[in-house]
Amino acid sequence: MTGLSVGVDVGGTFTDLAAVAEDGSVIAFKVSSTPGDQSEGVEDALRRLPGDAPPVTSIVHGTTVVTNMLLERTGARVVLCATAGATDLLELRRQERAALYDLSAQHPPSLVPPDCVIAVDERITPYGVARPLTSATTSDVVDRVVALAPDVVAVSLLHAYADPTHERALTASLRAVLHERAPGVDVVCSSDVLPEIREYERTATTVCEAYVRPGVGRYVARLASRLEAVGLPAPSVMSSSGGTAPAADAARNGASLALSGPAGGVTGAAHIARALGIDKALTIDIGGTSADVGLVLGGEPLLEAGGAVAGVPIALARVLVETVSAGGGSIAWVDDGDALRVGPRSAGARPGPVAFRRGGTLPTVTDAHIALGNIAATTMSDGVDLDIAGAVAAVDALARRIGTSRQATAEAIVSIVDASMARALRRVSVERGIDPRLCALIAFGGGGPLHACGLADRIGVRTIIVPPYAGVLSALGLAIAPQRSMAAASVMRTLESLEPSDLPLAALETALRVSGRRGAGEGTVKHFARVRYAGQGHELDVEIAPVLGAEAICERFAARHTERFGFALDRDIEIVSVRCVLSTGGREARLARRGPSEWSDDRRVDDGGVMSGFAMGRAVIALPDATLLVADGWLASALPMGGWMLERRG
Questions:
Q1: Rounded to an integer, what distance in angstroms lies between the CA atom of residue 238 and that of residue 261?
Q2: In sequence order, what are the residues at sequence separation of 6 or more whose Cβ sits closer than 8 angstroms to the Cβ of residue 410?
Q3: In whole angstroms, what is the distance from residue 351 CA to residue 346 CA?
Q4: How crowded is residue 602: how many other Cβ atoms within 10 Å of its Cβ?
Q5: Which run of H or of E encompasses 626?
């Protein structure tokens, strides 16, 4: 693949671009985001590539379109068809409290209101068909669906993961009739989206896919049209699982894009970890609106099944990312009890922090750092001239409100967001049996290097990596990520009773290669099984191969279970499902690109000094599109690849 492989990551404040050439060299910069239409910011970033740069051959996009639709509840009008007697799944959820000790807290409303759920008179049980789906029932359901005038229809019937006969028959009838009576209305089938056990998660994921699919389709088409108009190739989109998909495929798999941008960041951090030989690393990507926390094990992002986004369960494989509402634009305020709070409301891109001169009047985390002298630059990304005096005045006004000094107020603002992010770092590590003290912390994003030392001190980490291109690492992760497609099937058999034909790995792989756009002979395929001890309510993903027997799978699962939970059990092992993942393409970035003569580009300090690429004690180091704060007690040394390694002294 010749030319530039470009990654464009849209954040709440800035849109980041990283372009990797065939020789591994990198071009990177930021532009302001355009919240009204993200595609405008993407086009703006691409237009700013140097005129003498190689031609763009591929574009990978990380988008928050799906997350925004779920947060703002601006998706499509969905009608859900569910088995009679199981129409309240979305309302019943898992009967877990929204907040354990807050009896007034409520879960967000379901994506489908109860009056848009249609009961289907059919029933399949684990033992076979208990109530057949008749033509009269199908006709009645179709008429009721049309009467509700949906934008899209979701079909999720009981036990369709094991026997999708009824679901597929109803879906086919709906598509045929809607094609005539309501053109353009799509039908989403749960056995296509998630052929696995757990009715609530399967239904919620299917509904989410239906809810976001039309909006994702419109956005991707608009973006592709913009790029085509300026002579650029159609984009691919990063999925939550850390791989990319062509625009047309992404538009048909909207639910898999919920963590599109954050997945790029963890992918980029994993690349850095592999390059440095780091086995375990926590990652923190701090932007203007939020902070994304992840985990890298064995040089690869940790993949998990499911999780909630904006209160909506999405039980698809995804890179482990936990997002907290803490970023440079998080607003500091005083609550009714006169307590200082920071976030979750953000100043975003418009108006942004007071220092950005865009009309912001409320102090933010960025303004607090300026008041503390932690940001030495006078100009931010995209030519933003910082209003130092304005930022200080905003912090001073808040200090007067709470009756303390500017220094104490600014330190409290930073400490509050550090505490929130440290809790997230503990959750992704400790809850998975990983001691954070044994991990390195890879800090990136515009604010990651600023907060790295404070976070490391809170969780006991003694090594920090600030990678090259720290401010745009998510975009770099997008640019180097492989294209990835997946096929899955339900198994629900114990290893003891398993026959070779019960694992449809060959069929799944064949289906992937036949449907792939890059040829049947290209790419690598990995096979995974979702495995548990019989009676457990959770599973672990274990990499397997078609040639592995039951004993080898058992050994791999026991080792993985011991690593994660500290023990193994002497009981039957059950395979819940299997999936095949086809990966093609991808590109390596040549990170060792700076020589001593180039150190001045990102090693400016206001105090503490840098001698031959070292800094000890408090120092503020200006990086391209970010600032590194070296706290007292830390030693910073320049890495040969670019970027910095910080080590705790004493």
A1: 7
A2: 368, 369, 371, 372, 395
A3: 10
A4: 21
A5: strand 626-630
pLDDT on residue 32 = 84
Global model pTM greater than 0.70? yes
List the chain residues with pLDDT less than 70.
Answer: 1-2, 349, 380-384, 500-501, 513-522, 587-613
Rounded Cα gap, residues 150 and 141, in angstroms: 13
- Identify the bridge partners of residue 20 per DSSP, sorted by sequence position: 5, 26
> CA 328, 631, 621, 467 torsion: positive or negative?
negative
One-letter amino acid at 460 equals G
Distance CA 647, CA 407 (A): 27
Both ends of the chain: CA-CA distance in Å?
48
Looking at this protein, which amino acid is placed at residue 106? Q
pLDDT on residue 520:
41
Q: What is the dihedral of CA 272, 273, 276, 278, to 10 degrees?
A: 170
Element (H, E) at 480: helix 473-480
Phi, psi at 552, each rounded to 5°: -65, -40
Q: What are the CA-CA distances from residue 5 to residues 21, 22, 80, 339, 437 (Å)?
A: 6, 8, 40, 48, 36
Closest by CA to 173, choosing from 212, 135, 227, 131, is 135
pLDDT of residue 35: 81
Give the pLDDT of residue 381.
61
**Domains located in the chain, CATH noted:** 4-69+217-257 (3.30.420.40), 78-149+151-184 (no CATH), 484-584 (no CATH), 602-648 (no CATH)
Polymer length of the chain: 650
Residue 208 is predicted with a pLDDT of 97
Which three-class secondary structure state does DSSP give residue 147? helix
User: H helices within 361-430, ranges in order?
Assistant: 365-372, 388-402, 406-430
Looking at residue 255, what is its pLDDT? 93
